[in-house]
Write a structure and sequence with these properties.
268 residues, alpha/beta, Rossmann fold, binds D-glutamic acid
């Protein structure tokens, strides 16, 4: 039996999933969290679905052994390739970022013309298109990868001419498609929200899956009476599979708050 006081396990290919952890901390401040960032094997974006599934299973097993009450897959690529597998194999609830993002996009879109950006793996999987079309079959969905955004964000170039140039290159096609909504389908992209908004102009709603995923986690936990009781005293642990110093240095940009320490655990 899992206890409501048990932590939520959150994982990502690396540091980007801290944007989801940030929202979980904001919306569910009583919850303890164990975050695993697979910094030894990042990026997942260009890797094959089988490899990403194998990595995701290893991380899920690691978090399960630590007694988590639910799993949040903060990584879009891992959600696209491994959500169904983990939901079938794990006995605890497993929440991904794609469905909540798709739902938010459908709610926000006036005309049903929805763009999606993500890693190569996420876009090739068509996971967002499927999720959007399941909710709104008449939607017109266009999805394109923006692989250079991840290294630019990690470099901290959030408001930089080079990033603006890359964004114009990637995003002008969406203007021609007349999308009214764009899903930021990658952990790193919410940090580029102001720049993307500037490039696309005010007519396009930008959807950040992190917010919706935290709301979904709350709903799922509440439905199973698994929300942490008030005054539980949230404990947060940050684990990286490599380069903890780098994780620590970059964490604040993604999490919006500094963290005190990072543990290291090697997988595979
Ligand atoms: N976390 C990944 C995602 O949201 C981006 C980084 C990577 O490619 O591993 O898709």
């Amino acid at each position: 039996m899992v206890s409501p006081a048990a932590p939520i396990g959150v994982f990502d290919s690396g540091i980007g999933g801290l944007t989801v952890a940030r929202e979980l901390m904001r919306q569910l401040p009583e919850e303890s969290i164990i975050y695993f960032g697979d910094t030894a094997r990042v990026p997942y974006g260009p890797k094959s679905p089988d490899t990403v599934r194998r990595y995701s299973r290893e991380i899920a097993a690691y978090l399960r052994e630590r007694g988590v009450k639910a799993l949040v897959i903060a990584c879009n690529t891992a959600t696209a390739h491994a959500l169904a597998t983990l939901q079938a194999e794990e006995s605890i609830p497993v929440i991904g970022v794609v469905e909540p993002g798709a739902r938010a996009a459908v709610t926000a879109s006036r005309g049903g013309r929805i763009g999606v950006i993500g890693t190569l793996g996420t876009i090739r999987s068509s996971a967002y298109e499927r999720a959007i079309l399941a909710l709104r079959p008449d939607a017109h969905v266009v999805a394109r990868p923006c692989p250079l955004f991840v290294p630019l964000v990690e470099e901290g170039w959030l408001d930089h001419e080079a990033t603006r140039l890359v964004a114009s290159e990637y995003l002008t096609a969406f203007a021609a498609d007349r999308v009214d909504t764009l899903v930021l389908g990658c952990t790193h992209y919410p940090l580029l929200k102001p720049l993307i908004a500037e490039v696309l102009g005010p007519g396009v709603a930008l959807i950040d899956s992190a917010e919706q995923t935290a709301a979904e986690a709350r709903r799922v936990l509440a439905a199973r009476n698994l929300l942490a009781p008030a005054g539980s005293g949230a404990v947060r642990r940050w684990v990286a599979s490599d380069a903890p110093d780098q994780f620590l240095r970059m964490a604040e940009r993604f999490l919006g708050a500094p963290i005190e320490g990072v543990e290291t655990h090697t997988l595979g």
